[in-house]
Each structure stands twice: as C-alpha cells, then as structure tokens.
Amino acid sequence: MLPEDYPVELQLSAGCEVDPGNTSKSFIHVAFQGVHILSFQGTSWVPVPDAPSWMKLVIRILNGDQGTREMVQWLLNDTCPQVVSGLLEAGKSELEKQVKPQAWLSRGPSPGPGHLQLLCHVSGFYPKPVWVIWMRDEQEQLGTQRSDIMPNADETWYVQATLDVATGEEAGLTCRVKHSSLGGQDIILHWDGRCTSLGLTVLAVLACLVFLFVLLGLTFWIRRRHYQDIL
C-alpha cells in the first residue's frame, strides 16, 4: 500500500562520469522523504535492499513502461557522456593552462620594537592552488601567515606569506613556493636583508610621482611663456 504522508518529497540525482579511455559510468538515484529507495541499473529500475514493501508495485509499473526505460537508457548512456565529453573538450585548454609564478621578498611595517615583518610575494600563477611558506633549514616556520589568494587582472593569482621574527633571527630564512606549473622545481628565495621595505617602496613611488608633476608643470610654464613672447 502506498504511503499517505503529506507533503510528499521526491529527490532525484542523475549524472555520469567519463573516464580517459572514453568509458563512462552513469547513474540515477531516487529518494522518497529523504531516503534512497531505487536506482536505474542496466535496463531497469531496481529497489534498494531495504526498500519499503510498497516499492514492489512502483517498480512493476516503472519497468512495465518500456518507452520510458529506453529514454532513460538513451539519456544515461548516450546523451550524458556526449555532453560531458563536449564540455571537457571545450574547456581542455583552460584545464591544462599552466602559468609559472613570479616571487620576490620585501620587508613590511615593523610589528613592534625589535621585530621584523618579512613578506614573500607570489604573483602571476595559474591555476589557483599554490603552496607558500617560510622555512629555516628545511623546517617549516609555523608562524607563517598566508593571505587569501587574490585574482589579478589577467586572470592569474596573487598571494603573500608573512612572517614576524625578532631582529637578528632573520638570517637563514627562505621562502619556498610550490606550484603545478613548476614541474617539481620549487622556487626558493633566500632572505639576505637587502630587500626593499614596503615603506621605502611607497616613498620611491611618491617621489617619482612628485617629480613627474613638477616636470609637467615646468613644461607647461615654459610653453606658456613661449606663447606669450610670440603674442
């Protein structure tokens, strides 16, 4: 006897997996009130071992509809693998895209008296997964703090790893970068204390901007004087 509980909730899960050898595995699972009750296997519907007794009637009705069974077979065995293969082929270049990262070191703002903040920047890599950490003598520095991986304008990615150390203890530190595009040849950067600090970098940029504005202003003034002399 069919259940009379309301509301009735039916859930259906369907899909397929395409293996490299062009073999595929397809499935359809049906759940009733959140409990798995039957699947489509081969050419027919099959109940799960602990399905309720009323499923026998449902299975008999479903398997008696040959047209529907043939359509389900066609969707699972032909249509689904073709769609998945087409999507994989269309996105193949994107899936296989590999761009090597660029990495450099800098000194950040001081976290406090007698301490240094070391920054390891990694940018321009694709795909997104990357491993960046500060190390000393092949030992990972547990104080490494990694930022979120952020997108660049060219669809590559950027991340930085930060390490706070006491002044004088920075010697021997290295930043190690692992990425699929490197083919196992990790990037290893050695801290030598000569990296440009963030503050100096900002000052250098500001100085360049000031010089540019002065140069533009001087050029405008000279041209204006020249035009006035002509008039």
UniProtKB/TrEMBL annotation:
Main subcellular location of this protein, as a coarse class: membrane
Keyword match Translocase: no
Subcellular locations according to the entry: Cell membrane; Endosome membrane; Lysosome membrane
Database matches in InterPro entries: Ig-like_dom, Ig-like_dom_sf, Ig-like_fold, Ig_C1-set, MHC_class-I_related, MHC_I-like_Ag-recog, MHC_I-like_Ag-recog_sf, MHC_I/II-like_Ag-recog
Record-annotated membrane-spanning stretches: 198-222
Gene3D superfamilies: Immunoglobulins, MHC class I-like antigen recognition-like
Tagged with keyword Cell membrane: yes
UniProt-recorded Gene Ontology molecular function terms: endogenous lipid antigen binding; exogenous lipid antigen binding; lipopeptide binding
GO biological process: antigen processing and presentation, endogenous lipid antigen via MHC class Ib; antigen processing and presentation, exogenous lipid antigen via MHC class Ib; innate immune response; positive regulation of T cell mediated cytotoxicity
Ig-like domain location: 81-181
CC annotations in GO: endosome membrane; external side of plasma membrane; extracellular space; lysosomal membrane
Keywords for this protein: Cell membrane, Endosome, Glycoprotein, Immunity, Immunoglobulin domain, Innate immunity, Lysosome, Membrane, Transmembrane, Transmembrane helix
Topological category with respect to the lipid bilayer: Single-pass type I membrane protein
Function per UniProt: Antigen-presenting protein that binds self and non-self glycolipids and presents them to T-cell receptors on natural killer T-cells.
Designated name of the protein: Antigen-presenting glycoprotein CD1d
Organism in which the protein naturally occurs: Castor canadensis (American beaver)
High-level lineage: Eukaryota, Metazoa, Chordata, Craniata, Vertebrata
